[in-house]
Each structure stands twice: as structure tokens, then as C-alpha cells.
Amino acid sequence: MTYAHCGEPRPAQEKRGNFVKVFIIDDDPSVRKALQRLIRSAGMIVESFTSAEEFLEARLPPPDCLVLDVRLSGMSGLQLQQRLAADQQRIPIVFITAHDDDLARELAMQAGALGFLHKPFEDHVLLSILARTVARHDAHPTLNRPSRPSGQQRAETPDRLDLNKEDSP
């Protein structure tokens, strides 16, 4: 793990004494590298994984947000989302995908994803979602801790963004 700005925290983070951690899970090395650079440029700590299994095996403290590819070799991004929910890990997730899959988008968003972005996407869109996650983290630092009992649904919130969903009339 490396920090943005040559190892120095951004002033706002230094004042908080708190760093926002974002984990990237994508099997494409070029996507991982580009996302690492982008997210580090925003002053966040980034770690990346090539698969859901690698992420789970690392047994690290939960990040503040996951940027998760939908289609991975082995366990898919949606399967990881389900696994985390079953394990009572409420980690905010932004899904990314190169495939137009309405069912995957619907399942991800219904299960509480913060966003569902189709590759390639604009950098500012991902950073905007992450900024909202940071703001929620500052207000509620235990958001990624164990969730409510299973069976309870998460309400639709304006914090979530589905760029592929068509607006209703």
C-alpha cells in the first residue's frame, strides 16, 4: 500500500488523522493500475487484488469502499457482494464492468451497490461516488462494519448512482 502525494497525507486527511482506504478488485492489470493512480491522486489509500478470492484470502481490515469488477475469473463480483453480505460485512461497493448486463446491474443495485459504472467511464464520476463515500465515512466511521440482521432491505438513497439505468418518464 502506498499513499498519495509522495507518502504524505493530504491536509484534510491529516487533520482527521484518518485515511480512506479503497480496495480495487479487477483481473485486468491495466485497469487496476489506472484506477490506483486515479484514486491515489484523490489522496486515498489504495490496494488492489486480481480476484475476489485473493481479496478474501488477504483477511485485511475492511476498506471504506470496494471498486469491484462484475466479471472476474473464479468468484464474480456479484458473488463476492453476496458473500460479504452473508458474512455481515457492509462494505460500500462501486461496480465496474465492460459488459452491458441489465440483470447484473439490477442485482448489484438492489443489493446496495453505491454505483454501477460501464467501462470506460469518466474519472470524475468514480471520484464523485468515492467522495460521497468519504463524506459518509467521516460522518459514520463504522459504515463498513457488520450490518443489520439479514432479511432487512437497504432503502434506495440518492447516494447511489446507476449510470446505465434509463430515467423513467
**What's the name of the CATH homologous superfamily?**
Response regulator
Question: What is the subunit organization of this protein?
Answer: single chain
Residue-averaged pLDDT: 79
Categorize the overall geometry. globular
**Computed structural class:** alpha/beta
Instruction: Using the 3D structure, state the CATH architecture.
Output: 3-Layer(aba) Sandwich
Note the total helix count: 6
What separation lies between the terminal Cα atoms?
Answer: 45 Å
User: What is the class in the CATH system?
Assistant: Alpha Beta
Q: What portion of residues is helical?
A: 25-40%
Low-confidence parts lasting 5 or more residues at pLDDT below 50?
Answer: 1-17, 143-160, 164-169
- Biggest sheet overview: 6 strands, parallel
Assign the CATH topology.
Answer: Rossmann fold
Name the helix and strand elements from N-terminus to C-terminus, one letter apiece: HEHEHEHEHEHE
